[in-house]
Amino acid sequence: MRIHTMITAHSGCEGRPDNSLEYVRYALGCGADALEVDVHRRNGGFYISHDPSEDACPGLEEVFALVREGGMLLNCDLKAPGLERDVLELARSCGAEEQLLFSGSVCAGAMEEEEIRKRTFWNVENAVPAFWEQYKAGIPFTLEDVLRAAESCRRHGAGVVNIHYGFCTPEALAVFREQGIGVSAWTVNGEGEARRLLAAGVRNITSRRPLLVRSLRDGERHEAGQAP
């Protein structure tokens, strides 16, 4: 039986401004399962922006209020280590604890806590720091690299690895599957890649085109005789 792949709306999906309340409101009604925001700390609070900013960016508390009302999952892509516990406490205070997910710079130490670990799609560069830099430099990754990443995920209790779709070769997906580790692929915007990863049964697809990915996912489920 094929896994029901979760779809996460990437910040700025479908042409909305990145990390804006306009995007959040749109994403809440786009039919995805979750939406993603990038999170930084400032002056004892949190704001959403991909890069550190002194501008007036929306506060994470505002996002939690919108998400709580909409009932959708929220993936907080942490842009610095050490934010996990305080973001979780803020989610609790806002009544959005059950909707909270983490990705990004989640510390290995924080993964020792079940309340953090069970919410985390662990970025592969946390498991193997050189992995992403190697990929950006055009150095081919090997099966040994994937095995090291899978072993690190298992050692730290990560149930899902968050990984660029360029790493999601059939061989890499097979390694993670054999190790019982789900794969969350980002950022998948092309139809061909989305079809391939849906067919492979990845746990999550993060996309700037969630409407496309949802139509592909639900169309395939309909063809297979399953309820969309």
Query: Structural class of the helices, strands and pairings?
Result: alpha/beta
Biggest sheet character: 9 strands, mixed
Report how far the terminal alpha carbons are from each other: 14 Å
Q: What is the CA-atom radius of gyration, in angstroms? A: 17 Å
Low-confidence stretches: none
H and E order: EHEEHEHEHEHHHEHEHEH
How many strand elements?
9
How many separate helices? 10
Shape: globular
Beta-strand fraction estimate: 15-25%
Question: Any overview of this molecule?
Answer:
By secondary structure, this protein is of the alpha/beta class. The chain is 39% helix and 20% strand. It is built from ten helices and nine strands. Strands 1, 2, 3, 4, 5, 6, 7, 8 and 9 form a nine-stranded mixed sheet that branches. Helix 1 (21-28) packs parallel to helix 2. It is globular and about 45 Å long. The model has no long low-confidence stretch (mean pLDDT 93).
Brief description of this entry?
With 228 residues, the protein is an alpha/beta fold. Helices cover 39% and strands 20% of the residues. Strands 1, 2, 3, 4, 5, 6, 7, 8 and 9 form a 9-stranded mixed sheet that branches.
Layout of helices and strands, plus pairs?
Elements: E1 6-9, H1 21-28, E2 34-42, E3 45-48, H2 60-70, E4 73-78, H3 84-93, E5 100-104, H4 114-117, E6 121-123, H5 124-127, H6 130-136, H7 143-155, E7 160-164, H8 170-178, E8 182-186, H9 191-200, E9 204-207, H10 210-223
Parallel strand pairs: 1-2, 1-9, 2-4, 4-5, 6-7, 7-8, 8-9
Antiparallel strand pairs: 2-3
Helix pairs in contact: 1-2, 7-8, 9-10
